[in-house]
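batch_manifest entry 22 of 60
target: DNA damage-inducible transcript 4 protein
source organism: Crenichthys baileyi
requested by: lab member K.T.
priority: normal
notes from requester: please return tokens only, no post-processing; we will run our own comparison against the previous entry in this batch. if the run fails, retry once and flag.
--- input ---
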Amino acid sequence: MPEVFAPIEAGSIPPSPLDSSPRRLSWGKLVQRLADFSTNDSSIVSGSNTGSRSDLSDSGSDVSSDLCPSDDDLFFDPMEELILKEVVDLIARSLREAKDSDCALRCTKLLIPEKLLEHIGQELLHLAASEPCGLRGALIDLCVEQATTCESIAQLSVDPYLVPTFQLTLVLRLESGGLWPKIQGLFSSKSPSTPVLRQALKLSTGFRVIKKKLYSSEGLLIEEC
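--- output ---
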């Protein structure tokens, strides 16, 4: 019987095992895909690490920020703060002693607002910040303004062993407004032998400070506080 061969179409001929070009092309694409995958993977890892660092930073646990001092720490001087406290206490003590002398503060009771002493301390630090010796180089003149006169109470040298570099004149005022002038008679002495002028006085929280540099020819600096 004669063998019958089915017709074979040209497109259905299987590729020859010797023709490996399609296989080489497939391997090339596979290598390219592996390379792309490796690159993407490293980007993901890098992004996650960056996110971790940013999370730490947002949560406030950044070590570098904890170690860096703030501006307030850089300019804070514990010794200057200690000197300031002693100066303010000396000013208050000088004012209380003045009430027993023949001056504008002569009275049986002198009321010094705590807010006044606080403002004086802040102003002293502010004016001494630009001085070469700080507050230690200050020479302070205490004065009280009453009506049209200004009377000197005391002169204080912060450091008597140091030549002063600047002079401060503190002009304090007596309370003249509000309810105080109407009730201050209640604090007057009831003794007949006590002069009428020896009555209770109260200092105002406002004052004037005049600064003069003693080592230069700069003009006076006047501040109303």
